[in-house]
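Appendix C reproduces, verbatim, an entry submitted by the partner laboratory led by Prof. M.T., so that reviewers can inspect both the input and the predicted structure.
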Amino acid sequence: MGGQAINELAAGVVAGTFAIVPFHPIDTLKSRMQTRAAEYSNRPLSLFNSMVRREGLTSLYRGVASPMFGYGLINGSVFLSRGVTRDVILAGDARPLTLAEEAAVGASAGFWSSFARAPVERVKNVMQVRNSGGVHAPYTSSMACARALVRDLGFVKGLYTGFGSTVAREIPQYVFYFMAYDKSKELLDANHAALGISSHFVPVISGGIAGTMCWIPPFYSIDVIKTKIQSAPVGTYSGMADCVLKSYKSEGLSVFYRGMGLAVARAFLVHGSIFFLYEKTKFVMDNFSLFGKKRPKAGISLSADEGIEAEK
C-alpha cells in the first residue's frame, strides 16, 4: 500500500472515529422512530422524553461502542477505496474525473465499505432498538451482543443479516456523496470570501450538504428497511421486498419517512465533521512526517539553510 493510500486510510479512520460519537443519541432516536414509532405517538420529542424517563439518559448511547470502534474502519475503507479507484481510473493523468467516472468511484466506495459497515450497524441497531425487560438493553455491551449473535445464529446470519439492504443503500448514496461534496466545495472555495465564510469551514459546509443529500428519499427509505431487517429477530422478514410489503401493510406509506428529520439533522453534523477532520488530518499527513519534519513538496524550498528543494 503506497504512502498516499495510507494517508487516505488514516485520515478516514480519524474522521470516522471522532465524528460519530457526539451525535450517536440522534442516531438512536432515528432508529427507534424507524422501528417503534407507534409506542411514542410518532413524535421524536415523546420518544426522547420516554427513553430518558424510563430507560435513563445512557439509553441514548446504547450501541455506541460498535460505531465508535467500527466507523473508523468504515470511513477508512470508504476514503481508501475512493482514492484507489480514482487512481486506477486516472492512471496518472492529471485531469478531472468525468461524471460517469465520479459515479463509479462512489459506487466502489459504497460497495467495499458495506463489508465493514453491515456488522457494525447490525450490532448497533440491535442494541438501540431491542429492550430486555421493557427498559434495559438487550445485552450488557456491544461486544456481548456481537458474541451472542454469532453464538446463536452463526457468523453470517449473526453479523451480516441486512447485508443486501446495506449494499442497496450504500452504493447509490456514495454515487452522489462525493460528487455533492466536490461540487459544493468547488463553489465555496471560489466564493467563500464573498459570502463571509472562513476557508476553514468550507469542508464542514460542503460535507454537511453532501451528507444531507444522501439522507433524503429514496436513500432514507432504504435505510428504514435496513434498520428493520437488522434489528428484528431473524426470520421476521425474508428479504427487502418482504419487509417493504409487511411494513406498508401494517404502518402505511409514512413508515418509509419516519425519523427523516432526525436523520437529516444528524447527517449535516456528522458529515460536516467527517470531511473537516478528514481534510485536516490528510493535510497534516501529506505535509509532515511522523517525526515532525516537513515532507518536500514540489517546487517548495523547505529550508534556506539546508538548500533543499523538492523535485519538480
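Residues 296-312 have pLDDT under 50 and may be disordered. Additional entries are available on request from the coordinating office.
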